[in-house]
Design brief:
The protein is built from 2 helices and 11 strands. It is mainly beta and about 160 residues long.
């Protein structure tokens, strides 16, 4: 490789991966093996300029994400909270208490029936129960603490 500075030839202008324009700015960003204007490297969801909010960004499924949106969409690890396997960015997921699950993994801990959109479930100590199998369902005692009850909703839209 020839050092263009030593030969007196100015370096070729870098092109921004976001807008395609020449980067003549004093500062530029290098992310995902491409160069960006600071104004062009934005979170695909919230549109925050990533150079302004931190030194890291995340990429998954063709999306560029800030830390907050990555965690919101894929959990802390990008893995299913039930099976621990990776969740592809294009896959629909179920969520409960900040945890993310594959659709097939979102099931009752007792009967193993998969919970579907619209089903009621109870989340207790990190465990999911269907309406029928929730702990204490057979007891009529009022001294039990109330369980968190939610309806299952799938994420229809990523952002």
């Amino acid at each position: 490789m020839v050092n263009s500075q030593a030969s007196g030839v100015p370096p070729a202008p870098r092109l921004c991966a976001g807008c395609g324009g020449k980067i003549a700015d004093r500062f530029l960003l290098f992310s995902m093996e491409r160069y960006w204007h600071t104004r062009c490297l934005k979170c695909s969801c919230c549109q925050a300029q990533l150079g302004d909010i931190g030194t890291t960004c995340y990429s998954k499924g063709g999306m560029i994400l800030c830390r907050s949106d990555y965690i919101r969409l894929f959990g802390h690890s990008g893995a299913c909270s039930a099976c621990g396997q990776s969740i592809p960015a294009s896959e629909m997921v179920m969520r409960a208490q900040g945890n993310v699950y594959h659709l097939k993994c979102f099931s009752c801990a007792t009967c193993r029936n998969r919970l579907m959109p619209g089903d009621r479930f109870h989340y207790m100590n990190g465990t999911i129960f269907c309406e029928h199998d929730r702990p204490g369902a057979a007891l009529l005692s009022s001294h039990l603490p109330p369980l968190q009850s939610s309806s299952v909703l799938t994420d229809q839209k990523v952002c």
